[in-house]
Design a protein that fits this description.
about 270 residues; alpha/beta; Rossmann fold; 9 helices
C-alpha cells in the first residue's frame, strides 16, 4: 500500500485515481479515505488527479497516539502533497477535514494551493465561548468523549442516524450506516478521543482571513453535527473570495441527492 512518512516519522496512507490537475481530499471524523471512494471516481472521470489520505490514527494510517492537533494534521497533509509533488492543487475537506484544508492552505501550502472547497466544515469554531456565543456548549463535546470511551462501537451506530439525517426522515440504507460504523472502528481510541478537542476547539478565524485563493463553502441547512449558523454562514463572511452554497434539507454526510448536487456544483465551480 502507498504511504508517506511525515517529518515526525508517522506513516500516512493515501490512495489516488486519474490524472490532470490534482484534487486532494481530507475526510471527516471518525472516517477515512474510504469516505471519498465515490469522489475518487467521479472527479477522476472528470479529468482530475484525485488523492485521498487517511488522517494519522485513522483508517490504514499509523495508529499513533501523538500529534492529534490541527497543526500536525495540516503538516501531515503538506507531507502528502509534497511527497507527490502536487501543484496547482484543489484541496477539499469535509467536517474536520474542512478545518484541516483551511489550516493547510493558510499556513503550510507554500503556494501549492489553487482553490479550497469545504463541505459541512467546522471553521471558524464549533465550541461556544465568550468570543463565539453561537457555538455549541462544551457539554456536547464532553458527551461525545464520554461515549467514545464508554462504548465507541455503539456510539458510531447511534451517531450515524444524525450524521446521515436518517432521524429526520432521509432515506439511508443500512449498508451506508454499517460502513460509517466500519470506518469508525478503524480509528484507534486515542485518536478518536483527542480529535474531539481538535475539531471542536480549534479557532480558524485567522486562517479563513488569510486565504488568498477562491473558496467554495458548501453546507446543508439540516446539518445536525456542524450547525450551519455557527460555521458556514460565518466562514463565508471571513474569506476574501468566497462562494457560499447552501443545500436545503441536506445533512452532515455527503450522501445521496446532496452528494450528486455537490458533484455537479463543484465541477461547475472548478470549470468557471
Amino acid at each position: 500500500m502507498p504511504f508517506v512518512t511525515t517529518p515526525d516519522g508517522v506513516e500516512i496512507y493515501y490512495t489516488e485515481a486519474g490524472s490532470g490537475q490534482p484534487i486532494v481530499l481530507s475526510h471527516g471524523w471518525p472516517l477515512s479515505s474510504d469516505a471519498w471512494q465515490v469522489e475518487l471516481k467521479v472527479f477522476s472521470d472528470a479529468g482530475y488527479r484525485v488523492v485521498a489520505h487517511d488522517r494519522r490514527g485513522h483508517g490504514r494510517s499509523e495508529k499513533t497516539a501523538v500529534g492529534h492537533d490541527m497543526d500536525t494534521y495540516a503538516r501531515d497533509l503538506a507531507a502528502v502533497v509534497e511527497a507527490l509533488d502536487l501543484r496547482d492543487v484543489v484541496v477539499m475537506g469535509h467536517s474536520t477535514g474542512g478545518g484541516e484544508v483551511v489550516r493547510y492552505a493558510a499556513r503550510y501550502a507554500d503556494g501549492r494551493v489553487a482553490r479550497v472547497v469545504t463541505f459541512g466544515a467546522v471553521p471558524p469554531q464549533m465550541v461556544k465561548s465568550e468570543t463565539n456565543p453561537d457555538g455549541l456548549p462544551i457539554e456536547v463535546f464532553d458527551g461525545i468523549r464520554e461515549n467514545v470511551l464508554k462504548d465507541r462501537s455503539q456510539f458510531w451506530k447511534d451517531l450515524a442516524e444524525s450524521f446521515f439525517g436518517a432521524n429526520h426522515g432521509r432515506d439511508v440504507s443500512q449498508g451506508e450506516k454499517d460502513d460509517f460504523w466500519r470506518q469508525g472502528m478503524l480509528v484507534n481510541l486515542v485518536a478518536a478521543y483527542d480529535c474531539v478537542k481538535v475539531f471542536s476547539e480549534t479557532e480558524f478565524t485567522d486562517d479563513l482571513k488569510a486565504l488568498d485563493v477562491p473558496v467554495l463553502i458548501a453546507h446543508g441547512d439540516d446539518d445536525q453535527i456542524v450547525p450551519i449558523g455557527a460555521s458556514a454562514l460565518k466562514a463565508a463572511e471571513l474569506v476574501k473570495d468566497g462562494t457560499l452554497k447552501v443545500y436545503p434539507g441536506a445533512p452532515h454526510a455527503v450522501h445521496g441527492d446532496y452528494r450528486e448536487a455537490l458533484h455537479r456544483d463543484v465541477l461547475a465551480w472548478l470549470a468557471g
